[in-house]
């Protein structure tokens, strides 16, 4: 079964994100799908040939996490952005997610400040609000690249791409301004549903 790209064209016209930036980003996302499918096919072929103990198989297997997570994280990212014509409600203060944020961070403002701080850290990667169900705790986490730093078993709730391709076309090196635009485009309904 091959992975198919999801359509995110409804995000075109989102304030703070040029259509050129979004189209470039969609193309990059589709490249991760193409490569995930290619690697899956290569791994299957090598397995059928009995070559699972070869260096080729090992290197392709290592690369698979990069391509797959690149695909999936972009899906989470685009899905937690709202359609530009839809209402842009803040996170509902009566929602279980809001209450959990306050419980774990003291206030919503403390959480937001911490999340944005993670997002502006030097380097390429992702800022992710994770929920660890086993510990019943939220974490703002830096993910280096796609395949390093994930919290095993934790659920990604809010995903922010902070690779340069996500903002440099519109914001140059002003990542802070990009993050502000992103916060105005968060689809809190989707983020909250991931928590429930």
From TrEMBL:
Domain of life: Bacteria
Coiled-coil stretches: none
Keyword Transmembrane annotated: no
Keywords: Metal-binding, Oxidoreductase
Residues involved in Mn(2+) binding: 25, 74, 161, 165
Enzyme class: oxidoreductase
Domain Manganese/iron superoxide dismutase C-terminal: 95-194
EC assignment: 1.15.1.1
GO molecular function, one term: metal ion binding
Pfam family, one: Sod_Fe_C
Keyword Disulfide bond belongs to the record: no
Family: Belongs to the iron/manganese superoxide dismutase family.
Protein name (Swiss-Prot/TrEMBL): superoxide dismutase
Natural source organism: Candidatus Harrisonbacteria bacterium RIFCSPLOWO2_01_FULL_44_18
